[in-house]
């Protein structure tokens, strides 16, 4: 339901009434405030009077206590008894004095009298009020303060107001002996007893309470509950000298007459405000009707006439009322004349617009048809692109599957070729002749070259499909460079090329990447620097730091150099320098792989070269330092031997036996021969099922080499079953030995439960590393 806004007359009336009610409320509020302020002023005045009378009563009490102390000292023989320290006579003196001067006269309410020597040691105390025999001296803080006085200050009489066991006490300390004090007299009294005379001074009943709500005493005239409405309560809180609350003195002052006067004043203010409001409303009606209501009604009447018939545009209304409404009437008359002109012009334009609208509808219909045709073509094009994308995806999958199968099929025979060649070279008992040894070495080199080609093609394929993934390990640059130098140095020596690995100190330089990939980048660049060098040439490694977060590794050679027109092509796949295509072995994809790996690590690669002067290939990579933590290898590890001592017969694994799970007979014989070089016995299982049966019947296998692709049961499935057979005391060590070398194969093996992974072909060096690690 929509809210209907009231008319102008009603709105004005409501406004005037509201103002009247506000005035009336303000009058009532002002009367209440006036009454409260008056009462508060009364309370403050009475409180100050109570405060003054309380302090006066305490001053009188102080004088009476001083008078008591002086009279006590004037007693006959008091000083002689005190000087003799006759405790029994002193006690009689103070107990007799207790009642003689004070209690019987009801002058003060005496609580305790103490006598001390000059060092404030207690000599005697009154016993006339046994209920005041506390465990300690009343107002002992007074004695503590007195002990701090020096010189003439010790002659001064001091007083103290304290609270003890929820009771209030007033105490004074008076020296005994005049100008040469011989001791001190402490008198303690109840201060509340002397406050009772405040009622006479105020002319109103009083009440003393402690703990804010516990009543100590009140006078007989204290009003009853039903009389409290006409009583004004005012009080004063008394605190001890150490700011501890003692009690509150409250008075009840009769304000019935005052309330009558205040109520009359408030009612008079309300009457005045109400009268002014009624007069204001009446006067407002008269003024508003002439100045506002009548002119506004004329304006509304004319507006209704114009709405009913547009021919009324231009007719003027009467100019009356307040100045503002007169200006509105004048402007309204001008506006209606302008609107009359515009109405005539608009009527003419409407006819023209109808024709334009008809033409535009025809154009929009044509545009809609064209839009529908375009949408249909877009849908057809999207479907074509989707089909092409699916075909490309299938092609990539087929390519990956083909490369995986080719890698597996090539690595399997290569394992036998390289393995037997390495065994023949490593055999020290049945040595080869020089010519046969040369032929076997050539065979081994050719096999290794073929293996490198397979690895490079697989890397390129992985990069092209975007499936390569580099781990974020902490890698020591020093270690990677030393190992790369160790690998390339023998090749360089065969070509009479010097490799200078004496680079700047990088012991604490680390890179977030994968160790093997960083070493692959360095080996590719060093290998190219050696291959495309001149005889008796040189290769130098230089390291710079262009910024705090990036380092620059430069591989500098003084070889053949590269022509400027070929510099832009060297990172293109399968592109090689024209004049060296038939002179230097290679596929032309090493630099492509290197560039992709560097960019994946967040770095850049580039080359500077001049023909016949040499080339400088540089790589920039993000790095960080670790002060105090040695990086790289130990002194023993810095020199990495390329010829593992594979013929060591005094291996500690003589009594251990391993299981080789392999379906290829040639590779079975090869693995038996290779492990035999380390004096290790081995059994053969042709597939996963046979391996499981052998493990069940012989649980003493120290290690299991597991192939993946086998008939009846593969290595992954067999590993999972073997892991279920493991016990808490014994867990089989399973090493993947497979020709499956595509990205993700290693992870699959480790997920299945294998402990390590090595790919075929496996060298004697790699085999020894695995055996040394796990046996």
Number of strands: 22
The whole-number mean of residue pLDDT values reads 79
Query: What is the percent of helical residues?
Result: 40-55%
Output the radius of gyration. 58 Å
Largest sheet: 5 strands, antiparallel
Low-confidence stretches: 628-653
Number of separate helices:
17
Distance between the termini: 90 Å
| Coarse shape | flat
Secondary-structure-derived class: alpha+beta
- Strand residues, percent: 15-25%
The strand order across the widest sheet is 2-1-5-4-3
Provide an overview of this structure:
With 775 residues, the protein is α+β, with helices and mostly antiparallel strands. Helix 6 crosses helix 7. The protein is built from 17 helices and 22 strands. Strand 13 and strand 14 form a beta hairpin. Helix content is 51%, strand content 17%. The chain has a five-stranded antiparallel sheet with strand order 2-1-5-4-3, sandwiched between helices.
């Amino acid at each position: 339901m929509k809210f209907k806004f009231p008319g102008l007359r009603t709105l004005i009336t409501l406004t005037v009434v509201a103002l009247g009610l506000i005035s009336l409320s303000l009058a009532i509020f002002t009367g209440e405030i006036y009454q409260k302020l008056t009462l508060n002023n009364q309370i403050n005045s009475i409180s100050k009077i109570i405060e003054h009378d309380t302090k006066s009563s305490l001053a009188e009490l102080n004088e009476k206590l001083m008078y008591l102390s002086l009279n006590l000292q004037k007693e006959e023989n008091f000083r002689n008894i005190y000087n003799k320290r006759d405790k029994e006579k002193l006690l009689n003196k103070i107990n007799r004095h207790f009642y003689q001067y004070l209690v019987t006269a009801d002058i003060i309410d005496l609580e305790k009298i103490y006598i001390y020597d000059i060092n404030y040691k207690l000599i005697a105390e009154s016993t006339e009020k046994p209920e005041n025999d506390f465990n300690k001296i009343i107002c002992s803080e007074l004695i503590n303060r007195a002990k701090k006085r020096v010189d003439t200050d010790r002659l001064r009489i001091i007083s103290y107001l304290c609270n003890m066991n929820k009771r209030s006490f007033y105490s004074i300390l008076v020296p005994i002996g005049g100008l040469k004090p011989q001791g001190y007299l402490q008198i303690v009294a109840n201060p509340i007893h002397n406050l009772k005379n405040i009622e006479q001074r105020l002319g109103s009943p009083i009440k003393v309470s402690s703990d804010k709500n516990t009543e100590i005493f009140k006078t007989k005239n204290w009003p009853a509950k039903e009389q409290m409405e006409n009583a004004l309560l005012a009080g004063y809180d008394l605190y001890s000298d150490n700011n501890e609350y003692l009690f509150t003195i409250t008075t009840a002052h009769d304000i019935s007459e005052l309330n009558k006067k205040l109520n009359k004043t408030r009612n008079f203010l309300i009457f005045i405000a109400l009268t002014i409001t009624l007069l204001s409303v009446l006067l407002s009606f008269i003024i508003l009707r002439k100045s506002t209501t009548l002119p506004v009604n004329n304006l509304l009447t004319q507006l209704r006439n114009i709405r009913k018939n547009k021919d009324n545009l231009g007719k003027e209304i009467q100019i009356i009322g307040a100045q503002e409404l007169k200006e509105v009437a004048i402007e309204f008359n001008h506006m209606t004349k302008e609107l009359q002109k515009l109405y005539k012009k608009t009527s003419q334009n409407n006819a023209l617009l109808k024709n334009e609208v008809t033409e535009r509808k025809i154009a929009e219909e044509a545009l809609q048809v064209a839009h529908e045709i375009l949408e249909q073509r877009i849908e057809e094009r999207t479907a074509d692109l989707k089909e092409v994308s699916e075909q490309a995806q299938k092609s990539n999958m087929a390519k990956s599957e083909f490369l995986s199968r080719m890698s597996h099929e090539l690595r399997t025979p290569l394992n036998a070729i390289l393995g037997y060649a390495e065994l023949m070279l490593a055999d020290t008992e049945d040595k080869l002749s020089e010519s046969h040894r040369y032929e076997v070495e050539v065979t081994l080199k050719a096999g290794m070259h073929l293996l490198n080609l397979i690895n490079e093609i697989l890397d390129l394929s992985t990069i092209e499909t975007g499936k390569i993934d580099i781990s974020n390990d902490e890698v020591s640059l020093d270690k990677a460079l030393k190992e790369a130098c160790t690998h390339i140095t023998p090749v360089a020596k065969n070509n009479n090329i010097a490799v200078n690995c004496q680079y700047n100190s990088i012991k604490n330089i680390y890179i977030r990447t994968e160790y093997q990939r960083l070493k692959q980048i360095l080996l590719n660049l060093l290998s190219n620097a050696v291959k495309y060098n001149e005889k008796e040439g040189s290769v130098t490694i230089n390291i710079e730091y262009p910024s705090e977060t990036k380092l620059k590794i430069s591989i500098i050679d003084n070889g053949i150099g590269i022509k400027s027109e070929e510099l832009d092509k060297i990172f293109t796949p399968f592109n090689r320098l024209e004049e060296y295509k038939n002179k230097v072995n290679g596929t032309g994809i090493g630099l492509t792989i290197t560039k992709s790996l560097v960019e994946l690590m967040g770095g850049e690669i580039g080359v500077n070269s001049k023909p016949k002067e040499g080339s400088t290939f540089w790589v920039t990579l993000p790095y960080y330092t670790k002060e105090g933590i040695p990086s790289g290898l130990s002194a023993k590890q810095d020199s990495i031997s390329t010829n593992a001592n594979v013929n060591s017969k005094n291996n500690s694994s003589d009594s251990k036996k391993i299981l080789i799970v392999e379906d290829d007979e040639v590779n079975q014989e090869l693995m038996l021969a290779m492990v035999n070089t380390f004096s290790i016995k081995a059994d053969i299982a042709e597939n996963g099922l046979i391996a499981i049966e052998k493990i069940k019947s012989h649980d003493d296998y120290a290690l299991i080499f597991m192939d993946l692709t086998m008939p009846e049961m593969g290595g992954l499935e067999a590993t999972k079953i073997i892991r279920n057979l493991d016990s808490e005391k014994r867990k089989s060590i399973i090493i993947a030995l497979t020709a499956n070398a595509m990205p993700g194969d290693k992870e699959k093996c480790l997920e299945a439960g294998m402990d390590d992974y090595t790919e075929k072909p496996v060298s004697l060096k790699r085999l020894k590393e695995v055996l040394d690690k796990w046996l």
